Amino acid sequence: WRVLIANSEAHPPIIVDVGANVGSHASYPAALGARVYAIEPHPYHARRLMHMAHLNEWDMTVFAGAAHDSDGQGVIHLLEGGHLVMRNVVEVEEEGLAIARTYDVGLVRVDTLVRERRKVLLLKLDTDGHELQA
């Protein structure tokens, strides 16, 4: 991270973390001075990441929702075992998966969130099968 950020053309460099979870990949570049945009649909993880960014005074924007190909509202399912999926209930049930909880989430296009017209240094995408929509 240090070398990547130090050699960035833009200062501060922009990092986008889609599927940020609790910030394992977003926190270190933020601590080094990067501007980080983190997108996380799980409400608990998003709140925790927001709190951590606030406490450390990082230049981090956390969107508590999911990256998608359009802005709006959606539904995400927390399966037994803790895995999140963004599929309709019929598909989930046909695969024999058990839904533990369902959340309404905001949907955002990455370019809606990152309004800056500068080059993004790094885009990390971890959406568990939802990559094309993100």
UniProtKB/TrEMBL annotation:
<feature type="domain" description="Methyltransferase FkbM">
    <location>
        <begin position="17"/>
        <end position="133"/>
    </location>
</feature>
<dbReference type="InterPro" id="IPR029063">
    <property type="entry name" value="SAM-dependent_MTases_sf"/>
</dbReference>
<dbReference type="InterPro" id="IPR052514">
    <property type="entry name" value="SAM-dependent_MTase"/>
</dbReference>
<protein>
    <recommendedName>
        <fullName>Methyltransferase FkbM domain-containing protein</fullName>
    </recommendedName>
</protein>
<dbReference type="Pfam" id="PF05050">
    <property type="entry name" value="Methyltransf_21"/>
</dbReference>
<dbReference type="InterPro" id="IPR006342">
    <property type="entry name" value="FkbM_mtfrase"/>
</dbReference>
